[in-house]
Structure formats: C-alpha cells, structure tokens
Specification:
It is globular, with a radius of gyration of 19 Å. The protein is built from 11 helices and no strands. The chain has one domain: Mitochondrial carrier fold (Alpha/alpha barrel). The chain is mostly helical. α1 packs across α3, α3 packs antiparallel against α4 and α7 packs across α8.
C-alpha cells in the first residue's frame, strides 16, 4: 500500500498537464473550446487527493490476490494469475478513482474552477451516484488495460532477470512498465474516450450507446481521440510509476520494515 501510494502520487502530480490535454482532446466541444493549452493544472487537487489511496488499493489487492489465485491454478498459468490479480485490483481502485475522475475531468474542461464547487454541485444534483458516473465503463477500460499491461510487465521482468542472472533493478522494472503501459494505453483508447464522454455529461446512456454516438461523429478517428497524449502520458507515467513502486518496495525491504532484507 505504501509503495503503491508513492507511485500513484508521483505520476499524477508530475504528469498532470498531459492528462489534461488528453481529456480536452476527447471533449465533444473540441480541444480549444474545452480549454486548449491554458490552465493545464486545473483539477490537480482532486487528482492528488485520490491518487495515493487509489494506487494503494490497486497494489495491495494485486499483490494479495496473486498468491490466492496461484494456489487455485498452480504455477502453470502465470498470465491468468497476473490478469486475475490485476483485474481485482482495478475493481477496488476504481472505488476511489472514479469519483476523483468525475471531479477532475469536469474541472479540466472548464465546467468548474474549484473542486469544492464541483463536489457540492454533483452531490446536490445527483447524490452519490453522480460521483460514480462512468464506473462500469471505467472498470471495462481498466480490466483489459491491466490484462494486457501486467502480464507483459511481469514477462519482460522475467526475461530480463533470466538474461542477466539476477532480479531486475528498479530502473529496468520501470522500463518494462513503461513499454507495457504505452502499448496498453494505445489499444484501450476507445474505452477511455467513452468513459470521458460519460463523465463530462456528453454520453448517450450506456457505454455501448456512447461508443456508437462517438463513432457516428467521426468514425474510428473519433474513438481514438487523444491517443497520442494518452500513450505518451501513460508510457512516460509508467516509467515514473513503476520506478517509484519498485524503488519503494526495495527500500522497505532493505530497511527491514517488512521484516525481510530482499531487494
């Protein structure tokens, strides 16, 4: 949880402007009407508030679920084990991530200037359900993302460790996370576009109906709106995220806080 929290906060704060540009590319009104290149840190407070607990929930669930699934499936299905653990982690993380995203994206596109105003308006108009608009779509995006990213991440680390005869260093693990994250981000961009439209109040009901609406606006190109900043953001963010995670785990073990000296 500590390592995951450090990793999540590092990425969300350091690379927040890129996330803002991606969100504005996906706005129905168009990039410049949604804010363009101005106020790229708008909504940072909401993102920072949810990043640590969201990442902590993901990694604590991921690392706890892996041995449980392994005890059922055995060691012959590593991809299934990692995929099931990552999916479980995303379901839990989205309990924190989705309310944060709803507030953050509305601020990024200029609907609100202060987080408190956004929270108050959502609560009065829609109640708790308003904060979880797009939850199912977000989970539907995150699960395939994780099913691609984490098996690739673990496989890359395994191959590097076998090649050099020792465990990956934090920077090597970060490179593995960056490459797997960038690829996963590009592939799952249409799901991210649908999620953004729903959270901005520009959807058409269900995720499928929203996807059809977006496709009708501009075909495949519309479904891949923001693919470049999303891929760059998650690729670069993956390096920062996994380096912070790997380094935090290594440090906690070396200091003996986990009762173990492995690195």
């Amino acid at each position: 949880m500590v390592a995951g929290g450090c990793a999540g906060t590092s990425v969300d704060v350091a690379l927040y402007p890129i996330d803002t540009l991606k969100t504005r590319c996906q706005d129905k009104r168009g990039f410049f009407k949604a804010g363009g290149f101005t106020g790229v840190y708008r909504g940072l407070s909401a993102a920072a508030a949810g990043s640590a607990p969201g990442a902590a929930l993901f990694f604590s669930t991921y690392e706890t679920t892996k041995p449980l699934v392994r005890s059922v499936l055995g060691d012959d299905y590593p991809v299934a084990i990692q995929g099931a653990a990552a999916s479980s982690g995303e379901v839990m993380a989205c309990l924190v991530r989705v309310p944060t995203e709803n507030v953050k994206q509305r601020m990024q596109t200029g609907q609100f200037s202060r987080a408190t105003d956004c929270i108050r308006t959502l609560a009065s108009r829609e109640g708790i359900r308003g904060f979880y608009t797009g939850y199912l779509t977000t989970v539907s995006r995150e699960i395939p993302f994780s099913l691609i990213q984490f098996p690739l991440y673990e496989r890359f680390k395994k191959e590097i460790a076998a090649w050099q005869g020792r465990d990956c260093s934090p920077w090597q693990g970060a490179c593995c996370g960056s490459i797997s994250g960038a690829f996963s981000a590009a592939v799952t961009t249409p799901l991210d576009v649908v999620k953004t439209r729903q959270m901005l109040g520009q959807g058409a009901g269900s995720g499928l109906a929203t996807a059809k609406m977006v496709y009708g606006e501009g075909g495949p190109k519309a479904l891949f709106a923001g693919v470049a900043p999303r891929t760059f953001w998650i690729g670069l963010g993956g390096f920062v995220f996994f380096y912070a995670y790997e380094k935090s785990v290594q440090t906690l073990f070396r200091t003996g806080l986990w009762g173990d000296s492995r690195g």
